[in-house]
């Protein structure tokens, strides 16, 4: 494990903020188990729990907490200077941090989604949701990591993207769905395990290409921004 | 041996000019960067350390720019003012992580050497979060020294240190400077600079007001009368004789002795023995009372 990975992971799990990650996946898991044990028809609870809660809220919010935490928290408290005063090419800082963010997000979200998918339909749906969520975790993490370098309010902007753009505008202005990671994740999951529970609005090729573009594009942006990282003086 | 060069460096934030057209070259030895709060010291240090792009001008370390060039950190160490450390690490882990990030051949040995240098061995296995301010500062210095950099920049390194720790840090900076390292530290506390370094760069309102040895700077300020405290066997008679001297612009007599203001440093110091000899007065004490960095500094700030 690289030293940057080690410090990032220690920093992530060493902060109380990490505890924020637990409730959402637990609620998702709890609701799925509850509906199943009460014998509710999966067609009734599947879409709101799997998509409405799992893919539209749990995945992006967990990704937001972690993605803005791996670098943003260090920028906030100033410890980022320790890593930056090393003769490391900046990609060697961004990539390990992205890997930690995407990895932790994927594990945190994919496990409850897998269980919920199995309870709603089949192991295949569970796997499909887990894989699609992992890909989504990568795209979201790249986005939020880059956000923490281009703005001082990454959490706020991230929430605006998740809640306003993906959540609200997506319902009224169908065009915004083409730029919605959530829609890519739904399309990819539905491609792996076609069921009636997932309603797709972008095609699979668009979803695949856009997921890759978002992941790579924002990673490149983050590396470039980190190269020109400025520490604000007293006067600013 | 490394040289840090600044050529016509300015930095502004919107309409506010934080650093205004500064040129300097820092070679081996200890240099103090002095100035009141808000003079632009931190901005200047950040530009030297590659954490801020100059709005105009260039900052180079051995002819390589420091901005957008992580390679300079092989030769440069920075101890920033913000005392941010990963509190969840022990000092040893923290310094070791630095050594590993520098890809040193034997990180463990380098970490132990650096911790040894700042005398933190006894506490090295405790979490930094439990440290006092001064100890945290030393842990940060150890991390900045772990790769034995040619150039070390420290922003207000004595903040929060107790007198013993200050003394130790001053000795450490001296040792490094004597060993041919280029050390620059900023401070707004004059005694610190005075004790650690004779060479100063004085910043006032974003400009470089003076640079060099502060005693020399003082002597060059000819428009300011030099003040001397003189004690002799007959202060009153000496005062009468001195006021007739062209180089003397004023004499004050008080119970502890004379305060003499002289316009010309050289002429006065040559005249005094001659006058005393002629009058048969024995001079017991002659002390330039405004050659301290403090008075040099206040003159520069007022000017």
TrEMBL record, chain A:
GO terms for cellular component: plasma membrane. The keyword Chaperone does not apply. It comes from the Bacteria. Pfam families: ABC2_membrane_2 (PF12679). The chain crosses the membrane at residues 49-73, 94-115, 127-147, 154-173, 202-223. The keyword Membrane applies. Keywords: Membrane, Transmembrane, Transmembrane helix. GO terms for molecular function: ABC-type transporter activity. This is ABC-2 type transport system permease protein.
TrEMBL record, chain B:
It comes from the Bacteria. GO terms for molecular function: ATP binding; ATP hydrolysis activity. InterPro entries: AAA+_ATPase, ABC_transporter-like_ATP-bd, ABC_transporter-like_CS, P-loop_NTPase. Keywords: ATP-binding, Nucleotide-binding, Transport. Residues 4-230 form the ABC transporter domain. PANTHER family: ABC TRANSPORTER RELATED, ABC TRANSPORTER, ATP-BINDING PROTEIN. Belongs to the ABC transporter superfamily. This is Phosphonates import ATP-binding protein PhnC. It comes from Micromonospora noduli. The lineage of its organism: Bacteria, Bacillati, Actinomycetota, Actinomycetes, Micromonosporales.
